[in-house]
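User: Hi! I'm working on a homework problem where we have to compare a predicted structure to a textbook description. Could you give me the structure for the chain below?
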Amino acid sequence: MKRLIKFIIKDFLNIYDYFRIASTKVIKIKKKLKFVDNTFYIHRPTFRISKDFKTGKYGLMGYNCNICSGVSFGNYVLLAPEVHFVGNDHDFSNPSLPIIFSGRPLLEKKTFVDDDVWIGRGVIVMAGVTIGKGSIIAAGAIVTKDVEPLSVYAGIPARKIRPRFQNKHEENIYLDFIRNKPKKWGDYVT
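Assistant: Happy to help. Predicted structure tokens:
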């Protein structure tokens, strides 16, 4: 009986994995996303995702996320629903033009989310920000400045509330683990 249950669970995971990958491939084709890895899952429905969006392996994007141009993700990035990466602001310095007609600055700021980052529901990330490896951003935060690695940020604007790990020993275990990246999905699932 145990063998049958293991077989059924394994079969279900294989079918789930197939549909997860197939769903991401459909979104990639429809939105012309050339730089999104096949192991990165994009939950439907989505808002706007820029064509130059780049991802690493084994990530997940919740529904209704908005990704502007110039955004890159590392491996294992987890986005909750309704996370927004906001692009360059409008140029409002010309007094002879209404803001709606003034356009955006020519210089684009690049936004980078490093490996193993968890971004909570409803977070807004401003352009030009770097979110460090292993960080967590609490739900509803607005990230306006760079985020330190291995830390937890919350609030408006987002501020560091504590380190992710309580001591150096836990941090070293984590860093050793994340350096030895898995070759495939099943390396994490037992």
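For your comparison, note the following. The helical segments are 2-31, 99-102, 168-179. Residues 2-187 form a domain with the UDP N-Acetylglucosamine Acyltransferase; domain 1 fold (CATH 2.160.10.10). Good luck with the assignment!
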